[in-house]
Structure formats: structure tokens, C-alpha cells
Amino acid sequence: MVFSHPIRVYWEDTDAGGIVFYANYLKFMERARTEWLRALGIEQQRLREQTGGLFVVSETRLKYHRPARLDDQLLVTAQLQESGSASLIIEQRVLLADMAGSQDEAAPSAAAARALLCEGSIRIGWVNAATLRPARLPAHVLQSLTPCAPDTRHPIRGLSTVKP
Amino acid sequence: MVFSHPIRVYWEDTDAGGIVFYANYLKFMERARTEWLRALGIEQQRLREQTGGLFVVSETRLKYHRPARLDDQLLVTAQLQESGSASLIIEQRVLLADMAGSQDEAAPSAAAARALLCEGSIRIGWVNAATLRPARLPAHVLQSLTPCAPDTRHPIRGLSTVKP
Amino acid sequence: MVFSHPIRVYWEDTDAGGIVFYANYLKFMERARTEWLRALGIEQQRLREQTGGLFVVSETRLKYHRPARLDDQLLVTAQLQESGSASLIIEQRVLLADMAGSQDEAAPSAAAARALLCEGSIRIGWVNAATLRPARLPAHVLQSLTPCAPDTRHPIRGLSTVKP
Amino acid sequence: MVFSHPIRVYWEDTDAGGIVFYANYLKFMERARTEWLRALGIEQQRLREQTGGLFVVSETRLKYHRPARLDDQLLVTAQLQESGSASLIIEQRVLLADMAGSQDEAAPSAAAARALLCEGSIRIGWVNAATLRPARLPAHVLQSLTPCAPDTRHPIRGLSTVKP
User: Fold this and answer.
1) Are C17 and C63 in contact (CB under 8 A)?
2) pLDDT number for residue B98
3) B15 assigned to active site
4) Interval B79-88 mean pLDDT
5) Helix or strand holding residue C132 (H, E)
6) A88, A100, A93, A66: which is closest to A138 by C-alpha?
7) Which of A33, A125, C50, C74 could form a disulfide with A87, with the two C-beta atoms 3.0–4.6 Å apart?
8) What distance in Å separates residue B153's CA from the closest CA in chain D?
9) B87 touches chain A (CB under 8 A)
């Protein structure tokens, strides 16, 4: 079961091309990652106060398939792809909600393909908040993430393998 | 002589209406205030490290006259309107650069009116960075600002008088 | 009954002061206005296709009382203050959700005061989308808004009266 | 000679981690691409009016090496990596200006490494502005870009080869 978070497209997200500005998909993905962590019991503000560390993004890869527009209702997914002692790789998709939920029994995969607006891999590291130097992920964070880890025998698309 | 800072309109600034999104004029004004302070010798990052304080905005009033569009070259002004021991009022204008500089000898004021896209007053306070509680502006900051202060006998348009 | 819309504070909303960047409250307010219009049956993208017009902001006045921070859950209200043939004035508040809902029976007004982070008035006009020139609000939009109009005998705080 | 564009880090660019928010590097890169195109005689707003088309990003790959902070002065480069009939690949770097220009004769490459904050590849396509369907790049745009094209025998790092 993949975590997903609903996001509505507002004026602030669009640009003069009439579509969502390309950098804003990274905002949408960050919101979904935050809610995914929250669903796992991880509040980042509190985590920083407790551990003195914070997550930082070290690598992103995005493919933009179809544009989102004003008033569109989106679903943004977050799924742990790989976790090491110092970094995570999270796979994310931005879907058009109406199409993602449509019942096209004759051609479900065609409907799914039309719903996929953007997809990507985000690599996240853990750093000391004061020095911004890489550090080991707190043990309880890694534990919270483990039950969600997918079968890691499958090769990771998008980002090269982490060797922490 | 009013301080002005050039700003170009990029895709990120526009929305699906084909014009600059209304909140982004506050970004432009903040950039111009930062460069105005820098021109007076005040670097905010260093100031925070030295004093433990930072500026926060406590009130804004903006009028939007004409929209800016992609590729427009703007001039954003910043002028101290009033300074107290705990807050400043800064008057700012966003002008279309081409029209602001045009030589319309027959009707200079008409040209100036066409160039004015947005104008407003921004009240800024000084707070302790750790507690975010109001504090007195550092003396050397007030001194840096003083030579630029306009005649304070004139009433302040836009914001009610500060009574710190 | 005042319309309110929940908004969560994410990393994108904050700045290096550790608080929400002042321009972003205008984003939050725009989101709440959009959802308020949607609740009244007005979808802006569709409205533009049907009428060739769109809303633009012509004036904003904001007071910032307390800062919002990462992970805060907010409520943003939108209430019609005045409607004319060519513009609307909407009063908006940004509240900290936990405090807004707290049961402080001994001092309810003190709790409400702590919950109020930012408040303001937004004047909105209607323009032709192609020319961006002011135009009359479509009749059915005005009709949709009327049932929500407050008692207009009260003076409008924040913005001077519209004389369309 | 690689095109570079100076960018200053303002409050709007930072987040509560005290560093530039990761999506904002895509804004910086878009600004630099826009100025690079302008330097080649290509104004996007005018181009759209003349041709009915516009550029859209179809793929991005970024690596974040070191964070930028408030008040940092950056240099953002843009260099054509490959051009096809329907898309371009542009390689971009975000450098810390002070370090990029420092004279470290003993270890110039070490200084250059410290200056590199972020780097990436951006694939850009050309679409009909009304339908957003892919289209062929206007001939005069391709011609403007050609003199800058690097030796295309070298493999492209970052993005897989375009097969338009």
C-alpha cells in the first residue's frame, strides 16, 4: 500500500504558461514526504529539537509527463525505495486524482498512464542541524521506516545505489 | 535620492493569469529592502550573528495598479518613512523600468503614472532571534538609517503612526 | 458562520528566521479564498472559460501578530466584507488551529487572541482576462456571493470603502 | 566560455533549516537559462507571440553538494549539452561566487570543488502553447543555439540521450 497525500493546485503553483511551474512539483513531493513521515510518527520539528539533526535532500530526478493546471486535484505518493545508515531514497509520483480513481475497466493501464503527471526519486540524507555535516540517521527513525521498506532485491531505478 | 533595485520578472513570478502573482511583489520589496540595507552597510546574516536579533515584518499595505508580466524589467524602490526605537516604516514602489526611464517631455507625470505597478508601506520590527520577542533596534543600525530619514513632520500615509 | 480552510505549514513556507515568510500568508489567504469560492459553487478556471474574466487583487492590508512555524496546523478564514459591481472586499484571518479550538473556559478571548497569527483585508476586482481591464462582475457570481454578505451597515475596517 | 548569471540569496529562498530550500535551485537555474537565451537574442515572451510555442521542462537531475545561505552571492551557469529537433539538454551549475573567483593557485581544483553547491541537467522540450503538445523547435531558435553547442561526440552525463 503506497502512501498518498491530496494536493490542490492554486494560483501560486501555476505560471504564465498556464501550467504548474516545474520547481513546484518538488514542493508537492516535499509535502507528501512530510505527511508520510508524520503518518509514521515522525514530526520533523520535534525530531530536530530531540536529536539536533534534520533531513536534507542530496539528489533529485524528475520526469514530467503531463502538466497540472489550476484547480486540478492531485495525489502525491511517497514510497521508501532504499534506506541506509545515512540516507534514504524515496520514490514519488504526482497523479491527477480524478483520473487516478477512474474506473476504466477496459483499459486500466491506459487510465493510469494518463493520470501520471510527474514521477521521480529523491535521495535524502541526515545532517547535524548546526554544522550541516552528514550524520547517522537516529535509530528510531530507521526503525519507523523499516516496515515500509519494499523488497530491496529489485534494482533501484532513478538513483544510483547508496553506499553509505 | 530614493534607493532603487532592478528586478527581472521570470517564469517563477508569474501565474496562470499571465501576470505576476500578487504575493510576489512582497518578495520583490523584500529584495529591495535587503539591498537598501546592504547599501547602508547592514548585512542581515552578519547582524544576526553579532546581535542575536533579526527584522520581522509586522504590517503591510499594498496597492496594485497595473500588472507586471514575464520578461518585464522592474525597478523597486525603498525609502525610510519613519524610524522608532523598535520599528521602521518603509515606503516602496514597483516601477516598470522602461517607462520609468522614458522621456515623455510633454507629459512626464502621465509616463510616471503608467510606470507605477504597485506601491506600499511595510512596517518592520526588531526581535530577539531565539524568542522572537520585540526588542530595541541596535544603536548602530538606527545610526546607519538616520541620514536617510525623510522629514518626519509630514504625516505618514499608509500605516498608522508607531508608538513604541 | 465564517468559512475556514485548514493549511499545514511545510518547509517551503518557512525562511531562515525559522518562521513562515511574510509573503506566504498571502498564498495561504488566496488558497482559502479559492476554497471559499469553490464552496459557493465558483470554480475559477471554469469561470474564466465561461466568461473570459478573472479575479485580480487590487489592494491588501495585513497585520502580522505572531509567527507560524514548521508543522503548525493553521485555519485560514474568508468572509465577504463588501461587494460592489466591480470589486469585493474580503476579510481574512490566519489562526493557529490547536489554540483556535482549545477550550479555555476561564479566558476564551485570551485563547482566541493567542491563536490569531495574521489578519487582513483583500480587495479583489474583476478583469477581462485578455486585456486585464476592469469589468463588471458576472451576475451569477454576485448572486452566489450575496447570501454570505455580512451586515453592510458596519464600517469596513482595513480598506477604504469601494465606490464602483 | 560558459554563460553564467549572478544571483543573490534572499529570505524568500531560505527555509527553517537555515539554507536554500531544495526546489529553489530549479528557480535559480530557470533564471540563468532565461538570461542565457536572452544573451542569444531569444526573448521567451516575444517568441511565444511570434510562434505560438513555449519551452517546457521534461526532465531534471540535480545533485546537491553544499547548501547556500542567506546573503550568499551565487553564479549560475547554463551550457547547451545537446540539441535535437524537439528538445534540448542544458547542463547547469550553481557556484558560490566568492569561492568561484578565489585565487587558490596551490589547489585550484579544491577551491572549485568547494564552490560547487549544486549541479544538474535539465531537458527542455518545445510545445504548442495552446495544446501543450510537443512540436518542433523553430528553426531560428535552433540556429541561435548552434554556435554554442559543445562537441556532441562526448556522452551526455545526467540524462539519457534524446531520440526525438
Assistant:
1) no
2) 78
3) yes
4) 92
5) none
6) A88
7) A125
8) 33
9) no
B17 touches C at CB < 8 Å: yes
pLDDT digits 0-9 by tens, C13-60: 999 999 999 999 999 999 999 999 999 999 999 999 999 999 999 999
Chains that touch C (3 or more CB pairs under 8 A): A, B, D
Calpha distance D4→A113 (Å, rounded)? 38
- Chain B residue numbers with beta carbons less than 8 Å from the beta carbon of A69 are 16
Mean pLDDT of chain A: 87
Q: Which of A11-15, A82-86, B99-103, C125-129 has the lowest mean pLDDT?
A: B99-103
Categorise residue B66: left if φ over 0, alpha if ψ from -120 to 50, beta otherwise: beta
Complex-level ipTM? 0.86
Torsion, Cα of D43, D45, D49, D53 (10° steps): 90
| Residue A8: strand pairing partners | A73
Indicate yes or no: CB of D62 within 8 angstroms of CB of A59.
yes
pLDDT value of position B149: 47
- What are φ and ψ of residue C12, in 5° steps? -60, -25
Question: A123 — phi, psi (to 5°)?
Answer: -100, 130
Nearest CA in chain B to A14: B15
CB pairs under 8 A between A and D: 60
Look at residue C70 in the predicted model and tell me its pLDDT: 95
- As a whole number of angstroms, the longest Cα–Cα distance in chain B is 55
C112 burial via Cβ count (<10 Å: 0-12, 13-18, 19+): middle
Q: Please check whether residue C46 touches A, CB under 8 A.
A: yes
Is D40 inside any structural domain?
Answer: yes
For residue A124, the SS3 value is strand
Name D27's Cβ contacts closer than 8 Å, sequence gap at least 6. A23, B10, B12, D13
Q: Which residue range is the domain that position C103 belongs to? A: 3-148
> From its phi and psi, is residue B41 left (phi > 0), alpha (psi between -120 and 50) or beta?
left
CATH number, domain of D108, equals 3.10.129.10
Residue A157 located in a structural domain? no
pLDDT tens by residue, A61-74: 999 999 999 999 99
Helix (H) or strand (E) holding A70: none
Query: Which residues does chain B have within 8 Å of residue C64's beta carbon, measured at their own beta carbons?
Result: 56-60
Q: Which residues of D touch C17 (CB under 8 A)?
A: 11
**Does B162 reside within a domain?**
no
The parts of chain C modelled with pLDDT lower than 50 are: 148-149, 151-158, 160-164
Asked if the structure places residue B153 within a domain, the reply is no
**Residue D120: Cβ-neighbour burial (10 angstroms; 0-12, 13-18, 19+):** buried
Number of domains in chain D: 1
